[in-house]
Amino acid sequence: MTAPALVPGHQDGQDEPSGPSPELLDYARKVATDHQAQHHKPISRDALRARLGVSNQLASDLLRHLGTANVST
Q1: Where is this region: Disordered (predicted)?
Q2: Which end of the chain is least crowded, N or C, by CB within 10 Å?
Q3: How many domains does the chain contain in total?
Q4: Per the domain annotation, does 13 fall within a domain?
């Protein structure tokens, strides 16, 4: 499975960023669930960043949206 393309945070007619795309959130959720099943602990921000190839900030935002408390290394 390939990672979904990143979608810009700004939509036409909006001043505020809309956050990560639903497709990216779904993929991050799958990666986090697979990590939890394999390692028996929540995925860290750095592990999610490495798996998705995204920035630290975006990995943190994804974890926050997913409701994962473990955002440190």
Answers
A1: 1-24
A2: N
A3: 1
A4: no
